[in-house]
Amino acid sequence: xxxxxxxxxxxxxxxxxWVGASNNPxxxxxxxxxxxxxxxxxxxxxxxxxxxKTVLGMxxxxxxxxxxEVPDLAVLIVPTRVAVPVMEDLGRRGxxxxxxxxxxFKEMGQEGRRQEEALVAVARRYGMRFVGPxxxxxxxxxxRLNTTFFPTQDKAGALxxxxxxxxxxxxxxxxxxxxxxxxxxxxxxxxxxxxDVVDCLEYLAGEEDTRCIILYLESLxxxxxxxxxxxxxTRVKPVMALYVGGTAAGAxxxxxxxxxxxGDDGLYDGLFRQAGVLRVNSIGDLYTFGFALAxxxxxxxxxxxIVSHSGGxxxxxxxxxxxxxxxxxxxxxxxxxRLEDVLPATAxxxxxxxxxxxxxxxxxxxxxxxxxxxxxxxxxxxxxGVMGSSFRDVFxxxxxxxxxxxxxxxxxxxETSLVDxxxxxxxxxxxxxxxSFMDRNQDNxxxxxxxxxxxxxxxxxxxxxxxxxxxxxxxxxDRPS
Amino acid sequence: xxxxxxxxxxxxxxxxxWVGASNNPxxxxxxxxxxxxxxxxxxxxxxxxxxxKTVLGMxxxxxxxxxxEVPDLAVLIVPTRVAVPVMEDLGRRGxxxxxxxxxxFKEMGQEGRRQEEALVAVARRYGMRFVGPxxxxxxxxxxRLNTTFFPTQDKAGALxxxxxxxxxxxxxxxxxxxxxxxxxxxxxxxxxxxxDVVDCLEYLAGEEDTRCIILYLESLxxxxxxxxxxxxxTRVKPVMALYVGGTAAGAxxxxxxxxxxxGDDGLYDGLFRQAGVLRVNSIGDLYTFGFALAxxxxxxxxxxxIVSHSGGxxxxxxxxxxxxxxxxxxxxxxxxxRLEDVLPATAxxxxxxxxxxxxxxxxxxxxxxxxxxxxxxxxxxxxxGVMGSSFRDVFxxxxxxxxxxxxxxxxxxxETSLVDxxxxxxxxxxxxxxxSFMDRNQDNxxxxxxxxxxxxxxxxxxxxxxxxxxxxxxxxxDRPS
Lengths: 481, 481
What we know:
Two copies of one chain form a homodimer.
Chain A: H1 6-11, E1 16-19, H2 28-38, E2 45-48, E3 54-55, E4 58-59, E5 73-76, H3 80-92, E6 97-100, H4 110-126, E7 129-131, E8 137-140, E9 145-146, E10 159-163, H5 173-177, E11 183-188, H6 197-205, E12 212-217, H7 223-236, E13 239-243, H8 248-258, H9 265-275, E14 278-280, H10 283-295, E15 304-308, H11 311-323, H12 333-340, E16 353-354, H13 361-375, E17 380-384, H14 389-399, H15 407-428, E18 432-435, H16 444-451, E19 456-457, H17 460-478
Parallel strand pairs in A: 1-2, 1-5, 5-6, 6-7, 10-11, 10-12, 12-13, 13-14, 15-16, 15-17, 17-18, 18-19
Antiparallel strand pairs in A: 3-4, 8-9, 8-11
Helix pairs in contact in A: 3-4, 6-7, 7-9, 10-17, 11-17, 13-15, 15-16
């Protein structure tokens, strides 16, 4: 789509020069290089070090001039004062792309701003493009590329992120892991002295591994160009944004973070709306609803079916639906009759469907949703409480010595039956979203569903909010082009 | 406070008769009795069974008439059709309190409604008071009482809950455990044929182990009495409510859940406001913000100090503060100067305080918050990213063979230094709330803080929302009495 994008080569490098690692394991540059090694980056890595002959067991080079080839990418984690001469050295050798992790520039005031301008000037002179400075690095899971200090998951996700915060691509990894969420690609843009969020948006729109783009924004340097890029991107995939520069407090905090001036909240709100960018109000929402958008088809109408074995959660979900502009239609007599075949006598099948008590995922998670989706009476389904091992583990603890449950066989049978649920969104073209109080480390069903693209959110109302975003995307996707 | 409350004896029983357990481990009544046994209830338990001589190793009695004493409480998990005769049997023996788990009453329509009226008639005749029917049971952690099927945590929490959903006191246990939240006492009220939510509110207001009362409501049978009870309760402790019956969809769902008619949302909103009951919109908020209210002093003004080593989270927090009516004042020159002594050169100390990078909790979590709270320039402090073992575990993985970190000693030192932070809310009379992406299973600091009453919420904006509730409670607590 956009092969000229400067990020293309940065995110798909065949070789990397690394400036700022040594054999001192307490240094950030060293740790980041270790992470890259452990990520098993497949191409050659060339550490550049003025004195060391080897760095972390790899042959080191005294300067860029000594490199055996021109690397596709250079990563800089050096003291602020040497960043400009190092860029000069790399530029002379013909290096065209860099990630500058080094901080101490625009975000530090007047002198830093001058240093940052000098960086840009060197880059211009040699035709170099770069991410940063004051960023945390980039991640491309499928390319086994991770220049940050934080290890990522092995399996690539479908979320591409561009972030004006490094924390939101690194320290969040443990948070994401608990939710089965992973990045396809991630760019910590830092001060955006050269490459900015707009470049990232254009780049990620063309990357097949990325099915939803999420943005963390404190400011936009090029709002007009952002609008154009977003209008194009939202034609091909959902784009969500968290913008925190619209309040006085947020703008002031952002200023000392990346040295950027933020813009009026209402203005940005209009910009996002016009571009079809879905705005969220928390970083958690960005990840979790982004996951739903990446994996589920848009919600094409307002009507939802709700299924659970718990009266509290279905009532909470029904209430939250109405508060979020979604409907819970009473099922037709015909559909209620079809459901009665598989419902226990105490159950209610009018919608919400409350099975009262059932631990058989074959009924709750397959037979019932299939009948509901087949009927054409709803546009999507929310399920609460599909669970297996968590509940069994609790019971097994109580029943020890009285009843031995075949734990592994039961879990396997559950997961086999859940394959049918996982396929429904594709078959019926309608989204399925789940909620559960059991997380993926506690329950095999939660893990299985998340790993197969069915969102399992940790709270019934969150499933409704995910549906509300799927509906908003459904409306955006419908717009005339 | 209210020793006549019928729940007093139900929640503090010296002895329990149990009707509906057998030696069949696949029966609900059996599992629930096993849970009670495993909870180590200290008093005598008397299983009543028409045929068995022993139940789960305990001597069983053919009927209530055969019991060696009049038990303080009877628990019924019997088929619907025998519930009335069993109550009759218990009443004749002089039993005055019961928990009726049995379902199939008002929530099942006309015939069920008649059965429920018969239950009430028997109870009236013998002067019995009961919880249920169609409930999941009661929990009183400190009394080692748990009549539900779901085991609870050993350590009592400070949250007392009355819930019109059984799921919200049982299946949520695993969700609560991941957040360090536990109940002091819990009542699943079911159909409220006799004891209702108002009784629970009055009872919990007088229980010392309960520092915050949370309510899950689909309807209120006695709104006027609720208002009176809530006005009294909110004088002594915070009360929060999730009400889901105010939408058409929520009301319809609640009807088939507990057979109760719900009321207009605006009406209930006014009722809560008048009573000083803080309303939330999701069950997760009820638990997590309830935890904050139970353990932290109210926020007495709007001014917050924000501290982190991450620019993204502090900017998100600052933005969320303003959106939630809270202020992030620029610190005075004098305070900024006092902070400079402990801040790294790259840090920003104007508020938010961004340490840029620091893993020393002694500085970030003790020295800085203390200086801020001492100054009197803020009414509370939010900290993001106090962490220890999670981060070290990640680094230790990368550094294996290069650098051996004394993991246990470091964790111990951290926890020792966090004791000072834990004490600050009491010393300064101002709340401290944290956020982190590392949960209590991943990080020792998260666990330590939560276990000592400092909320650690899994998302920066959530910490702000907790503060907004602490502020709302601060305003309620100020009202003239």
